[in-house]
Every structure is written in structure tokens, then in C-alpha cells.
Amino acid sequence: MSETQSKPTLRWRVAQFLERQWWQRYLRGKSPEEYLRNKKAYWQRTLEQLEWTPVPGRKVLDAGCGPAGVYIYLEKIESVSALDPLLDSYESELSIFDRNDYPGVRFLAQPLEQAFDGEGTFEAIYCFNAINHVSDWAAALDALTAHAQQGTQLLMTSDVHRHKLLLPIFQALPGDVLHPQQHGPEAYRMALQQRGWRIEKEEVLRREAIFDYTAWVATFK
């Protein structure tokens, strides 16, 4: 990875600061136990909707896991490494996250673009609502691919632009400050295919005025 790729942008640093504030506001007054229970149920429903079956003992990565990523559902099924640059902040600021509650999960407190060579490759990679949070989109996708092996499965979701006219406006201006990366569905398809991923499924999970929350299931060729 080049030095240019590894330098976080100002837009990304602002988004990371606001992400911490968003979680604190969102969780205010919520029961941590109830929130985590509901979140586990959400992850189970989402995987079932996408016809994705966890495999016992499979080595997997939860990339951009946040404080309550899919690892909270998978941790007793698959062998999970969970990565997020804000893990230390989440642990000190949020009542829902304590890494001691997940002794079987290996946590990596770092950006996705940063090398994490000690992990080797994974049999499956989860990247839920995270790839549009990164500083360097291409480098993050390169990193995911570098940790794939022949036959690795990828489940990735992101907000993608529905309207081509709005996309360049959002790319130029911080109209969506929590998400430094703004792309349309064609850019995601091309980026995956250029890196050797065969897209098996693309499904819109939620439609909003500007964005489609879209999922891709892909296999590394």
C-alpha cells in the first residue's frame, strides 16, 4: 500500500468523529441488553434474506464491524476476526461494546486500508455498511481482495446512489457527512469484477429517496 493511500483524508477524519457522536446519540436511553438482542435477530434475518448460511468453524472477517457487527451473531459459529478503526473509542464510550464479551473474536482496531498481514486469507468476508465509510475506497477494496483466496465468499452491503444527477453533487460536497465515499451501483459492480470477484447476487435491501441500501454476494475466482 502506498503512503498516499494510507493517509486518511480530512473528509474521513470528520466522518469518523461524527460517527462516534452518532452512536452516542442513537444509543442514549436504550437498554444495551435489548439493543444487542434485537441486533442479533436483525443479523439472522438479513443473512436468511440473502440465503447466506454461516459455516461452523469457517475463518471469516467482519470488515468495518462497528460496535455490534455481524460478529455478535457469528461468534459462536464461525472463527471471526473483526476490524474497525473506532473499536477503542466504542469500548470506552459505548455501553453496548466490551471485547471481553466476545473471547472467541480477534479484534483489529485499525482502518481497513492498513495492512493486517498476520491474519492471512479468509474463507468468507463480511463487509456490512462499511465500504462507504473508508478514506480510500480503492485501497479498501484492494485490502479485502488481498485477504481472499480461491473460492472466498464476500457479502458486502452499502448505500448506493439511485440518481446519476445527484451523485457528482454528493461526491463534491459533504451532503452525506457520515459516508466519505459516494458511488453508484455500476461502480461497485465494476470494482468487484475488476478485482476478480464473480457477483452471484445483487439485492436492494432498503430503498430510500436518494440511496438504495444494496447487498452483493460474490465469490473470488
From TrEMBL:
Alphabetically, the GO molecular function entries are: methyltransferase activity
Bilayer-crossing regions? none
**Example GO biological process:** methylation
Q: Which Pfam family is an annotated match for this chain, by its short name?
A: Methyltransf_23
Question: What is this protein identified as?
Answer: Class I SAM-dependent methyltransferase
Tell me the keywords, alphabetical order: Methyltransferase, Transferase
The yes or no answer to whether the keyword Methyltransferase is present is yes
- Keyword Methyltransferase listed: yes
